[in-house]
Design a protein that fits this description.
Strand content: 25-35%
CATH class: Alpha Beta
Helix content: 10-25%
Mean pLDDT: 83
Order of helices and strands: EHEEEEHEEEH
Number of strands: 8
Radius of gyration: 17 Å
Number of domains: 1
CATH superfamily: 2,3-Dihydroxybiphenyl 1,2-Dioxygenase, domain 1
Strand order of the largest sheet: 1-4-3-2
Number of helices: 3
């Protein structure tokens, strides 16, 4: 489907990411991973349906597959900025990391990729320090 640019469609307002939702067969395992592995605080939870985590100005929602009648596709990647990449890797477990760039490269700062319990990529990006921005 082609989308045509429309005059004054939305004015100058730009969308802001409110949150991301991922679907899981094992919601409880995924919830433990986000809470214990990623260290995200739970914002709200409905047992057997979903768990929503606070991710700063946005949220990450985990939902049991089949809970809604309008499911999305399976491909998803979460990009999370972390203040201390080494500490995040330690909390998750080094054996869970599938790719790791411990120092800045041509694409940016240090980063690592792990998988959640059902194989979604979680890309952890080292937040630039204030001294590095000068």
């Amino acid at each position: 489907m082609k989308y045509k640019k429309r005059r004054n469609a939305g004015g100058n307002a730009k969308p802001r990411l409110a949150g991301v939702e991922l679907y899981f067969d094992d919601l409880e395992d995924a919830t433990r991973f986000c809470r214990n592995g990623l260290g995200l605080p739970i914002r709200n939870k409905q047992k057997g349906h979903h768990a929503q985590f606070d991710a700063g100005a946005s949220f990450i929602c985990l939902e049991r597959k089949g809970a809604e009648n309008y499911p999305s596709g399976d491909k998803a990647v979460l990009f999370l900025q972390v203040p201390d990449l080494a500490a995040a890797i330690s909390r998750i477990g080094r054996e869970q990391i599938v790719r790791y760039a411990p120092s800045a490269d041509r694409r940016g700062g240090a980063w690592a990729v792990c998988h959640d319990p059902e194989g979604h990529n979680i890309l952890l990006l080292q937040t630039k320090s204030r001294t590095a921005r000068r």
